[in-house]
Design a protein that fits this description.
With 322 residues, this protein is an alpha/beta fold. It has 14 helices and seven strands. It binds guanosine-5'-diphosphate (GDP) and magnesium ion. The site of magnesium ion has 5 residues, from helix 4.
């Protein structure tokens, strides 16, 4: 490793808000767990200041467009922004901005907006571990807002709850979203509901969402507002940011923010522990010779598959109990 690339030097550049150092650190965090640990050891103290906003919704609902407009609005207010996109079809993806080149150019060229795309690999298939780590890096760097785009489907929706302070659910007219919303329990996760593409008759959907909200009671005393936006034209973006700030104040005052963040930390710690255990057990299984014997026994019906697994794991459990 060249001297100028040493972790110490890199981190001090990062602390001085060098964008290249930020990019390098993100790459390290994604690809080199050992080095990443070393970096986190230094920078973790600077985290906890950024406000993290999750944006979820069906593909094509306008999440990327909405996020880019929202980021601009934040910049207009003098705030800095980090964007993490977990949408594989995102125009942010892959460094090349393809069809959305023109639309995205404005925000991509702003030095105080940093965009990173990540693949939706990882532990639970939705939000990757990288997302959490990159958000922490953005946070330590001093970004005021972190916007995370994730496709609203199954696990990803649940996963966004492990990281975001405020969750925005994006719907579009005519997409059958209102029914989908109730099925997927989106009502329970969304702090703000957005009807995007309101130029395509959003009123009906907004009303349906309001009605659906009527049947949910929340412990936190926050009723998610339903906002109409036309992301492509920037309509409703200011109101959206105001709603985010309103929600932020609400959860700060009621202690929900602290509770949420502690909850996130607990989940993360458990996830890491499970990962360590999995690696440990995998290694153990690989090295264990007994497994071949057990395979023979199960094959010849001397043993059933559950008792075999149980036998195999016993020595490990004993080790854990020591
Ligand atoms: N008519 C209309 N089209 C929109 C609006 N917002 C986004 N779009 C278009 O919808 C398509 C999908 O947008 P995108 O932001 O990539 O959606 P994502 O998949 O949710 O990230 C693009 O062609 C956008 O230009 C809107 O408010 N009205
Ligand atoms: Mg997108």
């Amino acid at each position: 490793m060249r001297r100028e690339d040493s972790i110490q030097v890199l981190v001090s550049k990062f602390i001085e808000k060098d964008r290249i150092a930020l990019a390098k650190i993100i790459t390290i965090v994604e690809n080199e767990p050992d080095k990443a640990k070393e970096i986190f050891d230094i920078i973790y103290k600077n985290t906890g200041k950024a406000y993290i906003i999750g944006v979820t919704g069906s593909p094509g609902s306008g999440k990327s467009t909405l996020i880019s407009k929202l980021a601009q609005e934040m910049r207009n207010r003098g705030k800095t922004v980090g964007i993490i996109s977990i949408d594989p079809s995102s125009p942010f993806s892959g460094g090349a901005f393809l069809g959305d080149r023109v639309r995205m150019r404005e925000i991509v060229s702003d030095p105080d907006i940093f965009i990173r795309s990540v693949a939706s690999r990882g532990i639970s298939g939705g939000l990757s571990k990288a997302t959490y780590d990159i958000a922490a890096v953005f946070d330590a760097y001093g970004k005021d807002y972190i916007l995370i785009e994730t496709v609203g489907a199954g696990q990803a929706e649940v996963d966004i709850m492990k990281i975001a302070d405020t969750i925005i659910c994006v719907f579009t007219p005519g997409a059958g979203d209102s029914i989908q919303a109730q099925k997927a329990g989106i009502m329970e996760i969304g702090d703000i509901l957005v009807v995007n593409k309101a130029d395509m008759d959003g009123d009906k959907l907004a009303l349906q969402l309001e009605l659906a909200l009527d049947s949910y009671t929340r412990q936190t005393g926050w009723r998610p507002p339903v906002l109409c936006t036309i992301a492509t034209e920037g309509v409703g973006i200011r109101e959206l940011l105001e709603s985010i700030e309103k929600h932020r104040k609400h959860i700060e005052l009621t202690g929900v923010l602290e509770e949420r963040r502690k909850n996130h930390i607990e989940k993360k710690i458990k996830e890491i522990v499970l990962q360590i255990v999995e690696e440990y057990v995998s290694k153990f299984l690989k090295e264990d010779r007994e497994i071949k014997n057990l395979v023979e026994k199960v094959y010849s019906k001397e043993e059933n598959i559950y008792s075999a697994a149980n036998k195999l794991i016993q020595p490990l459990i004993k080790k854990f109990e020591e």
